Amino acid sequence: MHFFRRSGDAAKRERVKALLAAGEAAWCPPVRLELWRGVGGKAERDALSRMQAALPDFPVTPPVWDSAIALAGQSRAAGLVTPSADYLIFACARLHGVELAHDDAHFDQLRRLLKS
Predict the structure, then answer these.
(1) CA distance 48 to 71
(2) What pTM, to 2 d.p., does this model score?
(3) Rounded to an integer, what distance in angstroms lies between the CA atom of residue 36 and that of residue 49?
(4) Could you tell me the residue ranges of all domains in the chain?
(5) pLDDT tens digit sequence for 14-26
């Protein structure tokens, strides 16, 4: 949400702007849901609507679900507590072969878990 808020971190906002300008940004349904859930005013809604019209959307397919479920089991066994949506987002990015640009320590934990 740094991108939409004037009070958001300027460096993170610039990173998102650069990814958008380079055509390197994409998302998946759980990301869209999280962003729409946090939208406040009309300016944010308008910006998100423009993004929705322009960004590629990676689907959450049955293999993504299967990967997310397996990852949740591995995570639980390792004693990690992660929001369900984060498993879907992480698995979606991984299975579609794209880098996940984020500001969420859960994704770093999941990446480390898979490397161990």
Answers:
(1) 29
(2) 0.86
(3) 9
(4) 10-54, 62-115
(5) 888 898 889 899 9
